[in-house]
Specification:
Structural class: alpha+beta
CATH class of the largest domain: Alpha Beta
Strand order of the largest sheet: 1-2-3-4-5
CATH topology of the largest domain: Aminopeptidase
Shape: globular
Number of strands: 5
CATH architecture of the largest domain: 3-Layer(aba) Sandwich
Bound molecules: coenzyme A
Number of domains: 2
Largest sheet: 5 strands, mixed
Strand content: 15-25%
Order of helices and strands: HHHHEHHHEEEHEH
Distance between the termini: 52 Å
């Protein structure tokens, strides 16, 4: 019965429910009982159910000119940007690194940016990934993996590099191996 009911939930209704819950709005309606059941489940299981039964539609795009406001919100959500450190000029040009990258992929739900990745590459031998991010409420649904795969498919014979502390496990699931030599030399960025 529960599963049958789930089949009738529209993904947009579920998203409205999540937003309503976040901002504390009381909601009524036919599906409320089912939503309450969903709420009882862990978010991981809920995400799995929503993906399988409600088919949240994710659109992937390859445009480089991502809207600065959407990109800024995504960076805020994953903790890479902070309002107090970001000037209006930085916000207005927030996509500059994406515009100048070799290629960019992004994930969209209902015309809202939910994930992004950018790559600097010579298109043959050497490629490096930057700024892979997925909105927390859309994580663990395969979006990050799909974004990385789309990049690798652009030049599958290339060496692929990424520098990360907290997402090593994620990249290992995709097939990246730790560089045991650990021989990076660097001059740090003066902006961040
Ligand atoms: C890292 C990140 C992009 C992963 O995106 P995602 O859409 O959640 O990834 P996926 O759903 O494709 O996950 C694929 C697998 O990796 C695992 N995984 C995801 N994030 C992980 C992490 N930080 N550490 C270890 N494993 C992770 C998932 O559990 C999943 O495994 P499963 O298939 O066994 O369930 C996302 O967590 C994120 O935006 N983090 C904040 C920003 C960040 O750290 N970016 C990386 C900098 S290069």
């Amino acid at each position: 019965m529960f599963l049958l009911k789930c089949r009738y939930i529209e993904s947009s209704a579920v998203r409205q429910y999540k937003i309503a819950k976040t901002v504390g709005v009381r909601i009524e309606g036919e599906s409320t009982r089912c939503f309450r059941l969903l709420e009882l489940l862990s978010w991981k299981l809920t995400n799995w159910l929503l993906r399988g039964l409600c088919m949240i539609e994710i659109e992937y795009r390859d445009q480089k000119d991502l809207p600065c406001d959407e990109l800024y919100k995504l960076f805020l959500a994953v903790g890479w940007a902070k309002d107090e450190n970001t000037t209006q000029m930085m916000r207005d040009n927030f996509n500059c690194a994406f515009l100048a990258s070799t290629f960019v992929f992004s994930a969209w739900v209902d015309n809202h940016l939910v994930g992004c990745i950018r790559v600097l590459s010579d298109l043959h031998f050497r490629s490096i990934i930057y700024d892979l991010a997925v909105l927390p409420e859309y994580q663990k649904q395969g979006i990050g993996t799909e974004l990385v795969h789309r990049c690798i498919n652009m030049c599958p014979g290339s060496e692929w590099l990424v520098q990360t502390d907290c997402a090593k496990g994620f990249y290992e699931t995709i097939g990246f191996k730790k560089n045991s030599e650990d021989d990076f030399l660097m001059i740090p960025c003066k902006w961040f």
